[in-house]
Amino acid sequence: MGLYAILSGIRLNLGGQLGLNEILAVGGSLSIKKWKELFRDVPDIKRITIAYLVFLFAQILSDIVNHSATNDLVRGWANIAMAIIVTNFLARLLYRAPALIVVYLIGEIIRLALFGEESEGGLEDMGFFKFYLVPILNSIVLVLAYYLLSKKRESRRLIVGLLVFYGLFSIAFDARSNGIFWILTGFVLLQMERVKKLTLRKAVPYLVFFIILFQLLYSFYVSSVLSGSIGGDHSKEQFDRLENPYNPLALLASGRAETFVAIEAIRDKPVFGHGSWAPDKDGKYTLLMHKMHGEEEKFLSHLENAEKGLIIPSHSVIIGTWACAGVLGFLAIMYIFVLLVRRFFSLFRQPEFSASPLCPILIYFFFYLVWTFFFSPLPHIKQTLPVMIALVVVLHRKGEIQFKQKQVKRTMDSIALTKVGFTN
């Protein structure tokens, strides 16, 4: 898995981007026997594969209806096909040894160090920190948390402190969503036993408390950014554009305007969508995105520099699927999302989960997975989602098997005691 992660940094331009890691996955997935064995061992992978095939069918249907360009439809279909292959490949490796996820993370550190795109600025450039250093630091923190927890279970509080500190550090240096993920991961890790026992009725007071706390902390953060105490130019420019910067929903609408623009595109073609890579032929949706960003003056230069034409902005796997493949594709991707959320909460309640050193990795992956489904571009189905999907369903399946084995053991012990009683 380390090699897979490293090779993802080397990409070939064959009409579309093809990573060497994807070639490795294809090479390791040629045996039909291996696919059958994986489907038998991890039934959820079979369910997810079927859902992806439904998504592919919907995409093909949409491309036929929309008369999509050959280059676009080939890239669109290949994106879904590669998501299936890569997800199955990684699940097969993790099923053999779930701890290989740590090797994957180490490979990610090496890849990012070798191939990560550097900013033209120095460390004071927030873009450099957010897009180059943060991914490296994320993997380092996860590996460190795994190592500490595997060596000494009592180090949980130390790990929580590390995660929260890193989260606050990320927020201060303009990586807001990343920082929130880490703070939430630390909180769940610290309060795991209480969180497990929460019912909907008990959760409501906590939810109200955290909404109020979040608004207070968010207001403090906005005030600090506007005064120049923390954050970078990007955050300050974002807040300056907002009518009410203290409204977090306004920030979300501005920062992820592409997602809301895609919703407008869905309204225009709700049944079949706009086809692979959803072309924005007259620039209608691109202009709307620039308006939401408060950067209308950039539209013309964007239009002039788009050599291959404009595409409908989406920046969301779920919404982007609907925009590209229509309602059937949306239902397929939502099935995968809901299945993963259910499997995570089922896994979360297993006693073995909280004792596992993989616990911090999985909790962080869950928050990142949810964010990716809602606020990351569609190509993430073959880039970042496969490893998270594979880890969730594999660990859930391992937990199921352990539970069944314990049930069998208890039954056998009960039979043995009964026989001893009869003998006496």
From TrEMBL:
Q: What is the name of this protein?
A: O-antigen ligase domain-containing protein
Determine if Metal-binding is one of this entry's keywords: no
Keywords linked to the UniProt accession: Membrane, Transmembrane, Transmembrane helix
Segments passing through the bilayer: 98-116, 128-149, 156-173, 203-221, 317-341, 353-374
**Species this chain originates from:** Terrimonas ginsenosidimutans
